[in-house]
Amino acid sequence: MLQVFLESPEAMPANVDSMDEMQLADTVGRYLGDKAYLVVLDDVWSSEVWDYLGVALPDSGMGSRIIVSTRVIDIGRQCRWASRVETLVHTPLDKGSSLQLFLRKASRWVGCTPDPELKEIAAEIVRECRGLPLLLVAMGGLMSTRPQTAEAWQDVLDKLRRTRDLELALPAVLWLAYNDLPSRLKACFLYFILFPRTYCAKRTALVRLWVAGGFVQKEYGRTLEDTAEAYLHELIRRNLVQVTDYYDYGKVRSCGVHDMLREIIIHKCEEDNFGASVTRDAGKVRADVRRLSTVDTKRDDFLRDVSAGHVRTLFMLGASAASTSSLLAIIPEYKLLRVLDLEGAPVDRLPEELPDGSCLRYLSLRNTRISKLPKSLRKLTHLQTLDLKGTYVSHLPAGITRMDSIRHLLAYRYYSGQHPPYYYALGVTLPRGIGQLRDLQKLTYVEATRDKGTLVELARLTQLKRLGIVKLRSGDGGTLCASVAKMTELLSLSASSSDITEPLNLASLDPAPRKLERLYLRGPLPELPRWVLSLRNLQRIRLRWSSLKGDAIVHLQCLPVIELALIQAYDGVTLHFTEGFSNLQILEIDHLTNLELIRVEGSAMPMIHKMSLRSCRSLTTVPEGIQRLKHLKEIHLFAMPDAMVASLKEGGMASHVPVIRVYNQHRDISQ
């Protein structure tokens, strides 16, 4: 229900965070009372939801609609306050569609027809799936790992039938898909027990957690994180894990599992004592539980019966102050703890003594109120991940240089006041000796020191894949460039100058990291660094406050970028796209106050599908040549001149674009 206000131009009601369900429903209902609305509710399980929605979603006779998806047929019929209820029953796929979906997920059959013998076996496998898409894609994913021979496929079919004969509560197809996993993937799959049903696990965090949990086997020529990424993509390819969100530049952002697959995870975790998730209503957990997550637990005694000597992983999601205090009081007893995640917990300090440093691999204090780290942190010599994002820690203690196994160090927060500084990420200062942490792969965000000591030591961190540094002064550029030139594995670089007038001098970087995929530069650029044009793997570039002039942007057209953002980055009057940007899909133009004209010619930007224009007060006409952009699907306008909005709506030049949204007026003018 909060989403109603998050997408509204009106202010969020006061005290909304402290409202109970019925108070929030009443507030939403009063807001929607004179409005037409469309609400989509996915996967509703209980008719009790109507008690709240009857208050929150008034039937005011204005043509509003509610769409509900559910596996419980009576859910819709039990909505008695709607003026009309229509039930659409989703029937299983027919034989032909089922076979087509199955063969497409088996992947090797795309564009060709299997021989008759294989197709006959495929039809038998499809019959076992009963036209259910989840079962079809799971079996298709399994078969994509098998040789394309009749013998291999018949073997799978025989196993499927034997599994079916066991009369299991869940479909045999899903059990077979799970049992077919290699042991290394089974543990990674079962790890989803620790996330709530509606929770989307972030890819980057999941990879680090699998590594910390010891589930990832070392492979020659690969980092553990690269191998963990391969595990995740294998689970996705097998259709056992679903991608829930992508970054704009194409990488997986978050993922989860289907409810029916989650039932298998729950069953196996109980059977093997892999782990458990405790909700606010759950009772006791077994004393020898090895991995435990708590979800909205308000009790302070939830760990009373748990044997600290067995627990390897502990998450606290939505914990109360009482339950967090209870945990922190006994945390030194958890000698074998490998993972401790306190993200979002109401805690402002850690106990002076932390769990035994010989075991702890992962410590997340993200979005807590902690401002200082205990001295015992230096004992965590095997720690791989320290996540301080969103905390108030501004300086890392000297003891951190003894943590020579650290691989991921995230320590920054975003300034959230009414007048944010030019650099929106606030970093931390590092102690001398940070260059000793040779295994570091991610280091964000670091404040440049006046003596340049930190910048010099960065040269020793040659395994870095992501580096973020803030508060750079004009004289720091040469030192930073000399260090970055040695980071041959670098994939992401973010550099911010100390304020809006301080030049960002990065011209001397040579050679540039050839693997670089993402580049974020914040600060005045005397000129576009030449090395930028040599980045053949660059996917995303965001320039903020760069104040570029002349044909600087034209030079970028040779890059293979997927996403380009220019945020007060160009002082010219015209943006002229002639050729190039052949891979560009997303273009964001923000606060280019001098810009009067955007012109697209030739074959420029052939793949673009999303364009955002924000606060360009002199841009009053539709981009010339926009009709050339045949793949453009979305145009988003934020605080743009009325003349621009009118020309876009009435001119017809963008009639081929399905979605056109104007946010300053909260209107959608899609054709």
Give your account of this protein's structure.
With 671 residues, the chain is of the alpha/beta class. It folds into six domains: 2-77, no CATH class; 95-179; 183-266, Arc Repressor Mutant, subunit A (Orthogonal Bundle); 275-283 and 292-411, Ribonuclease Inhibitor (Leucine-rich repeat, LRR (right-handed beta-alpha superhelix), Alpha-Beta Horseshoe), CATH 3.80.10.10; 430-546, Ribonuclease Inhibitor (Leucine-rich repeat, LRR (right-handed beta-alpha superhelix)), CATH 3.80.10; 548-671. It is built from 18 helices and 27 strands. The strands form five sheets. The protein has an 18-stranded mixed β-sheet. It has a three-stranded antiparallel β-sheet with strand order 3-5-4. β19 (540-544), α17 and β20 (563-567) form a beta-alpha-beta unit. It is globular, with a radius of gyration of 28 Å. The model is unreliable at 665-671 (pLDDT under 50).
Q: Work out the number of β strands.
A: 27
CATH superfamily of the largest domain: Ribonuclease Inhibitor
By CATH, the architecture of the largest domain is named Alpha-Beta Horseshoe
Tell me, what's the shape?
globular
Largest sheet: 18 strands, mixed
**What's the tally of helices?**
18
Separation of the first and last Cα atoms: 29 Å
Secondary-structure-based class equals alpha/beta
Strand percent estimate: 15-25%
Overall pLDDT level: 86
CATH structural fold name of the largest domain:
Leucine-rich repeat, LRR (right-handed beta-alpha superhelix)
Q: Regarding CATH, which class of the largest domain?
A: Alpha Beta
Rg from alpha-carbon coordinates: 28 Å
Low-confidence stretches: 665-671
How many individual domains? 6
Percent helix, as a range, is 25-40%
